[in-house]
Design brief:
One of its GO terms (biological process) is ribosomal small subunit assembly. Keywords: Cytoplasm, Ribosome biogenesis. Required for maturation of 30S ribosomal subunits. Helices cover 26% and strands 40% of the residues. It has 155 residues and is α+β, with helices and mostly antiparallel strands. Strands 7-6-5-4-8 form a five-stranded antiparallel β-sheet. Strands 1-2-3 form a three-stranded mixed β-sheet. The two termini are 27 Å apart.
Length: 155
């Protein structure tokens, strides 16, 4: 699971007080280039889910602070949104909160012939993620080998 890049690390201390003041949870922060544009994406959540007013409030407050402190050199587009139903699990607290839920795990390189797994989250302990697949097989992954973990979308 990736560590924040330099720009994300600069923005995080500016963003965290805004999120806390509004009673929200920071799910993810990313600064990425897509095509010719740079995007600063902030994903927020709260019990019961976020709405457009929550996103707007964070966006407006963050814009003011970013303009004031100017930690980002290049032009960028700010996006604030919900993490969606397939929310990423990144923090240790996420793995506790969503224990027992079905998750999708993507690896950097194949393990036992596959880079993608799905199963019930058993837990994250000492840098090892454990899931139980539908067939009852327990699979473990070293945290350093994991590209992403998301809540599964099952219809």
């Amino acid at each position: 699971m990736a560590k924040p890049n330099n720009t994300e690390a600069k923005v995080l201390p500016i963003l965290e007080p805004i999120i806390a003041e509004k009673g929200l949870e920071l799910v993810d922060l990313e600064f990425v280039k897509e095509g010719v544009n740079w995007y600063l994406r902030v994903y927020i959540d709260k019990d019961g889910g976020v709405n457009i007013d929550d996103c707007e409030a964070v966006s407006r407050a963050l814009e003011v602070k970013l303009d004031e402190k100017d930690p980002i050199e290049q032009a960028y587009i700010l996006e604030v949104s919900s993490p969606g139903i397939d929310r990423p699990l990144k923090k240790d607290a996420d793995f506790v909160k969503y224990q027992g839920e079905i998750i999708d795990v993507k690896l950097y390189k194949a393990q036992d012939g596959s880079k993608q797994y799905q199963g019930r989250l058993l837990g994250l302990e000492n840098g090892v993620l454990s899931i139980e697949e539908e067939n009852g097989n327990v699979v473990k992954f070293e945290q350093k080998d994991i590209a992403s973990v998301r809540l599964a979308v099952i219809f």
